[in-house]
Amino acid sequence: MEKRYVLSIDQSTQGTKAVIFAADGRLVAKTARPHRQIIHDNGFVEHDGEEIMANVLAVIREVVELAGVDPAEVACLGISNQRETCIAWDRATHLPLYNAIVWQCSRAKDICADMVERDPAVADRVCELSGMNLSPYFSAGKMAWLVQNVPAVHDAAKAGTLALGTMDSWVLYALSEEHAFATEPSNASRTQLLDIATCTWSTELCDAFGVPLDALAEVRPSDSIFGHTTAGGLFEEPIPISGMLGDSQAALMGQGCLEPGQVKATYGTGSSIMMQAGSDLVRSKNGLVTSLGWEFCGHRSYVLEGNINYTGAVVSWMKDDARLIFDPTDAEACARRANPADRTYFVPAFTGLGAPYWDDGATAILTGVTRTTGHDEIVKAGLESIAYQIGDVVDAMRADTGLEVHELRVDGGPTANGYLMQFQADVTDVDVSVSSVAELSAAGAAFVAGHAAGVYDANAIFEQIERTTYAGQMNPHHRKLLLAGWRAAVRQAMCH
């Protein structure tokens, strides 16, 4: 039977999606299941790895049924995943040894501080080798915490059966018939354990963090045949798992940002703003990080990136915790009703600030409140905080590269909010191009997998995407005043 479809799994922070794309690039069907957000009293954030894998198998079956596709017509499977989130498991039992530690979790803050106290030069060396500032945000500190604090992890390390991996490695391992233990450059570079100049694990970095090198996955090109899966018996003949990318790099691929200087922003729980840098390793002087984009068709690509901890999660906080809205779609109506002259600012530093500030001690702050400030104005400030943070990263990219940024290609659930998208264009002074396909991470992984399996010659998925463009309309003087107020609010959040 002709292999006419590509299956893509997007294992994200809030849940797991399965998406099927046709050989002509059309999105045929999609399904999703959420998983629990395990948040401890001390602020630790975790996911259940076994729950996630149960959801992976469930959404695969659901999407194939929803699409009305014969499983024998599915050619291959691609994986995109939440990056920096990591998990430990035992290669003898194939079972997790602890919950996955989510990228948002800052439990490794003391580990990073102790490293600097022992050796003040270590932070510069970590940045030089990994391309990223020493931070509990990345996987290395989380892996070190697991080794130091979970007896079962320590015991598995001594026995030589420990596996420490990002979520792509865990999903691949649990899904593949071979129990393949592998990763690829976009995910490996985000661990802070990879030498990004050579694309190999660094013994020096592993030693600095106390992470056993032999517990790490093999790094393969992003378009490798990583393994094969029946998806729990759904496929009579195992299909190849032929592409993997971290979700942000997958979205960059899905957005067609293949030329140096092209920029995309993914609005998820947090946000990744990423500039394609091509084959050159560009080092930031303005609070961004250098990562590997991918290794695809034999070529290695670098990216310049800024990561923000809380963007879409601000809307979730306003709904679930602050009870300011009943549904995420309510936020736009509130913002449009709000007094446009109100100058309330909200800085969502719930677990510190990410790029370009990198302040782990910053705390969230609501400032500029006056008698004109009410419910709608606070919701508006929450929405606008998303655009301000992304604008800060775009400005840092401009400063690092000297390149003009004329277009920001965006994806993710919050891009459906017209108020937010127009405000993003206004304060960033760029055209904001919203993809008609929200599942860009799944699309990027599907293209890589489909290309490796011979389904795609070119990115037919990107060619199917329609776009809505928001052009900046704000008076430059007004923009300058708004940005000055935002930066003053950020300085207040960083006073600790």
Polypeptide structure, described:
The chain is an alpha+beta fold and 496 residues long. It has a domain of 243 residues: 2-Layer Sandwich (Nucleotidyltransferase, domain 5). Helices cover 35% and strands 24% of the residues. It has 16 helices and 24 strands. Strands 18-19-17-16-22-23-24 form a seven-stranded mixed sheet, sandwiched between helices. Strand 22, helix 13 and strand 23 form a beta-alpha-beta unit. Helix 4 packs across helix 5. It is globular and about 65 Å long.
The biggest beta sheet reads: 7 strands, mixed
Count every beta strand, where a strand is a DSSP E run of 2 or more residues: 24
Global Rg: 22 Å
Q: Give the overall pLDDT as a whole number.
A: 94
Protein structure class: alpha+beta
Alpha plus pi helix count? 16
CATH architectural category of the domain at 5-247: 2-Layer Sandwich
Features:
496 residues, alpha+beta, Nucleotidyltransferase, domain 5, seven-stranded mixed beta sheet, six-stranded mixed beta sheet, 16 helices
What's the layout of helices and strands?
Layout lengths: L4 E7 L3 E8 L4 E8 L3 E2 L5 E3 L1 H19 L6 E8 L4 E5 L9 E2 L7 H10 L3 H9 L8 H11 L1 H9 L2 E5 H9 L6 E2 L1 H4 L5 E2 L4 E2 L1 H7 L8 E2 L7 E3 L9 E8 H8 L8 E5 L3 E8 L10 E8 L2 E10 L3 H9 L9 H8 L7 E3 L17 E3 L7 H27 L5 E5 L6 H11 L2 E5 L4 H13 L7 H4 L3 E4 L5 H18 L3
Parallel strand pairs: 1-6, 6-15, 10-13, 16-22, 22-23
Antiparallel strand pairs: 1-2, 2-3, 4-5, 5-8, 7-9, 11-12, 14-15, 16-17, 17-19, 18-19, 20-21, 23-24
Helix pairs in contact: 1-6, 4-5, 9-14, 10-12, 11-12, 12-13
